[in-house]
UniProtKB/TrEMBL annotation:
Transmembrane segments: none annotated. One of its GO terms (cellular component) is cytosol. Belongs to the esterase D family. It comes from Novosphingobium silvae. This is S-formylglutathione hydrolase. Its EC number is 3.1.2.12.
């Protein structure tokens, strides 16, 4: 693992790291914030999955999580959103290909070889974090934004018992029911819509999966709300399934990091209460 940079910040160290991924077959970059801690102490981990067009850098530079993470002693990990680089297929559109991995293991060509973001975020990167950072892997939470909110919800729903807390900012709640999702799932997984269900938070809940604790914030002035995000589908699915959830509409907020950074400290506080002890 190569150390790209480290910076002292908020009583901790913000690092950026690069490694050669066996899953994606590419170099992958990720960021980790580690609060100061006693020698030998292990800290809980909060994962953050980013949205379309993002790298690790968007939340690292604009997410404003460090003060809360330092206060609560929580490690914050931000992976990239796709494989990148020479030899990796791409698409002209911002919502498919590089920067738009949708946290799936692609089954279609030409994507299947490198686009293995599910295996990367579910297995390969957690093993690296456990081995290289003072991480208590018995105390993990996960969050994310938009495509990354979809990632956080679906990774947690498929891995019961791994995360104590799950939250999301303006998540895509049902790729089966929105243009971003239909395009990505068709391209990466194929035409058989039944195979998309393991990548659809509402479908996973309908099929019996459950989350330990769920917090969602959604801006009412988000231009993607009606066409892509469809928060109401998650509200209705949780109600019908008896999945407890706090899903909040935040008046006047849009889809940007101005919104995310406003509520980020509250999400970190909320995760920290679930990750204590
Ligand atoms: N470029 C696109 C919009 C892309 C966009 O809004 N990306 C969001 C995530 S959207 C869902 O996954 C994002 O986080 N962007 C990075 C940032 O730093 O804001 C368009 O033109 O519509």
């Amino acid at each position: 693992m190569e150390v790209v940079s480290t910076n002292r910040s908020h009583g901790g160290v913000q690092g950026v790291y690069r490694h050669s991924s066996a899953e994606t077959g590419t170099e992958m970059t990720f960021s980790v914030f580690v609060p100061d801690h006693a020698p030998g102490q292990k800290l809980p981990v909060l994962w953050y999955l980013s949205g379309l067009t993002c790298t690790h850098a968007n939340v690292t530079e604009k997410g404003e999580y460090r003060a809360a993470c330092a206060q609560h002693g929580v490690i914050f990990v931000a992976p990239d959103t796709s494989p990148r680089g020479e030899g990796v297929p791409d698409d002209e559109a911002y919502d498919f290909g590089q920067g738009a991995g949708f946290y799936v293991d692609a089954a279609q060509q030409p994507w299947a070889q490198h686009f293995r973001m599910r295996a990367y975020v579910e297995a390969e990167l957690p093993a690296i974090v456990a081995a290289r950072f003072p991480a208590d892997m018995e105390r993990q939470g996960i969050t994310g934004h938009s495509m990354g909110g979809h990632g956080a919800l679906t990774v947690a729903l498929r891995n019961p018992g791994r995360f104590r807390s799950v939250s999301a900012f303006s998540p895509i709640v049902s790729p089966l029911n929105c243009p971003w999702g239909e395009k990505a799932m068709t391209g990466y997984i194929g035409e058989d819509r039944s195979a998309w269900r393991e990548y659809d938070a509402c479908a996973l809940i309908e099929d019996g999966a459950r989350l330990p604790a769920l917090l969602v914030d959604q801006g009412s002035a988000d231009g993607f709300l009606e066409s892509q995000l469809k928060t109401q589908l998650l509200v209705e699915t949780c109600e019908k399934a008896g999945q407890s959830a706090t899903i909040r509409m935040q008046e006047g907020y849009d889809h940007s990091y101005y919104f995310i950074s406003t509520f980020m400290p509250e999400h970190v506080d909320w995760h920290a209460t679930h990750l204590k002890g």
